């Protein structure tokens, strides 16, 4: 993966050139065969109003289809940008008072050239696809994507400067496909309730079409989207002729019922090992007007989402988990502006979970690890003037732990999370030339005297008229007021700030940029956002080159370079200086992708690993190092596909201590076998081993330490070897384009073995410690997620989920680096099992209202 600096600075370019078909497709010529940095002229297509009914069957046999103008003459985007399409694509657009209809015919050379792997909804596979893109406010920054595969599998996405290409967004629409000899046909019906647009008498929408022919990994667009031009939505054509249509009343209700049976053999003595529950709630969607939509979830149930990938965390920072809850992944592009919203904070582990203490003769009988949401609501939309407005609010309930007296059986409740309100407000103004300016505010208010938090940020991106050069930046202010939870200790009324500014060339084969930023020592957005470490001054520069046209035996070439330097903000002290170089290319005939990443880092000072605050006095010296990772991915069109990577980081010898040289090795192995168009098996292996790593063990007095030890009150570090293995096996069987079964099994193990210990003094000085306690540790996590899903009607779903989970920590003499010993111990440990059934039913007011 590219470093954070490059991924942030090159976001528009990486968005268009990454592995997802439409992120890669975001750069396709449509007229002139060129890859210049000037956007192509915008094509126009007229839509035709109809009064007769259209039967959605993938046949296009109604006469009115032949009366509509044709969009054709697509141009290849990959692997050879600018080449006109040989096998024509013909697209027509119809509309009535309620729907937009898209009819597309994709010609090919032979029937068996049309690939048609079956996948679950929103999943790409070894299949041809057709897509339509709509920019309904014509702001050239935000848009919709509706995609269908040859097998009729539907995919949809939103585009925005903040969220990029977001396939978590889902709309209720329909499509049918068919194959006729050497061509395949796609017919789409997109209700106006699925999109947002103004009340203008005549609409002007951004429009583009894309076709992927998987047989030769070719991607085509109707309107040219050049690789060297910054942006995607700004390179679409135009749809004209849509007149006298009114945004409909967008009102839908999706009630759900769910039932769970859970068996946990590790439940405390005296409690039931098997429990059942029955739940009900609803999602509501209401179009407030033509621009804005309210989404609300009442008494939500997230029990069926995929299990988190739990890991052994030895770092001073928390683990960031993926968001798998649909409500927090769909339509959240506005709330993600500025990266100030980490949705896992909402409904997270109670703030008093880890600090819960049992009294004398007490046992913890129940300590909930999750906060139950009462409701969550979001209002978002964009006016015809390009002003995006987003409002988010969620309320979580009180959470109580239960403690039982072992002598008399009396139980008492302890509050671990007070009633809390989470809110976000966003204003985002689209500007000409792919530019924008935004204002974001996040707020967390807790009941009682527990501290509250507020963060306000402004950000901007201004491009010149040619969309060649850009300047961007942000200024964020954070504020905390109140007392610590269950404590009278004041939170020192923290006020902090962050700023960042950058300038660079964003279009062309050669791009570059420089940026500089500060995060003050009191800046803290973590109540509703996520930040791994503040108190930084950072500056950097990048220089990148991409060759889009094939040459020699390769399709393209990408080279990335970067230099980063950082200081501690207060006190101002050197932290690190690093250089990065990376590249990748894809061969012309085999479509084998190869690449590398290389880092050269100078000796640095780690102020976070000692975990002493305020920062600056204590730090761990890290020797200079060189890291090299090479990788390849084989042709995914084949039944058998393989990805692999191997890496090594070698450190210089520690100059101040005569200890062995540090090293880090890693290996990844990712085979996939497609048995047929319905069944695919995937496996992933990630292995790493760090030798002679220096890390934090403990600081100060610990409850489990003897009281007469000389290191009490000091920072204790250990030299250790850390071996980590992660195995994931996934199987997917897709019965139809609306019914699928997936099973994902993951086993993770990580073992830490200590060799010796030192105490850390101010200034990075280390002194050997006569510390004899065995601090070795092995952590195992095991999960099975089996999901049967059936979309029995548009927007309506039945899902049956089985989850199996266990996690163990083996300490001291029980810890072992032997993988199969850990695997056997994990399998033989009692597991938590859960089976659930959930039914969603989509009710649309437009379908239920009486017909006129």
Automatic annotation (TrEMBL):
Residues 1-24 form the signal peptide. The keyword Signal applies. Residues 57-213 form the Carbohydrate-binding domain. GO terms for molecular function: carbohydrate binding; hydrolase activity, hydrolyzing O-glycosyl compounds. SUPFAM superfamilies: CBD9-like. Pfam families: CBM9_1 (PF06452), DUF5916 (PF19313). GO terms for biological process: carbohydrate catabolic process. CDD domains: CBM9_like_2 (cd09618). Keywords: Signal. Residues 247-849 form the DUF5916 domain. This is Uncharacterized protein.
